Amino acid sequence: MGKTRHTGPVSLPKTPDPNLWVSYVPFGIGKVKPRHIRDTMKVIWDNRDNLPYAYRILTQGVCDGCALGVAGLKDQTLTGPHLCTTRLNVLRLNTMPAMRPEILHQDIDELRKLSSEELRKLGRIPYPLLREPGDQKFRRISWDEALDRIAEKIKKLDPRQFAFYLTSRGSSNETYYVAAKVARFLGTNHIDNASRICHSPSKTALKRSLGIGASSCNYKDWIGTDVLVFWGSVAANNQPVSTKYMYAAKRKGTKIIVINPYHEPSMDAYWVPSIPDSALFGTRIADDFYQVNIGGDIAFMNGVMKHWFEMEERNPGSAINHSFVQAHTNGYQALKKHISKYGWEELERSSGLTREQMRKFAQLLAGAKSAVFVWSMGLTQHRFGTDNISQVANLALLRGFLGREHCGVMPIRGHSGVQGSGEMGADPFSLPGGGFDEPTLQRLEKVWNFEIPRWQGDIVGVTLENALLPDDHEQKIRLYYLSGGNFLETMPDPDFVRRSLTQLDVRVHQDIIFNSSTLLDAREAVIVLPAMTRYEQPGGCTSTSTERMVYFSPEIEGPRIEEARPEWQIYLDLAARVKPGAKECLGLENAQQIREEIAQAAPDYDGIQHLRKQGDVFQWGGAWLCEGGFCPTPDGRGNLLPIDLPEHRETEGQFRITTRRGKQFNSMIYSDTDPFNNADRYDVLIHEEDAAKLFIEEGDAIVLYNRHGRFHGRARFAPIHPGNLGVHWPEGNILIPKGIYEEHAGIPEYNTTCILEKAETFYGRKDADYAEKRVADLETEIS
Question: 307-311: which pairs have CB atoms within 8 A and are 24 or more residues apart?
Answer without folding.
Answer: 307/358, 307/359, 307/362, 307/363, 308/362, 308/366, 308/398, 309/336, 309/339, 309/340, 311/362, 311/363, 311/366
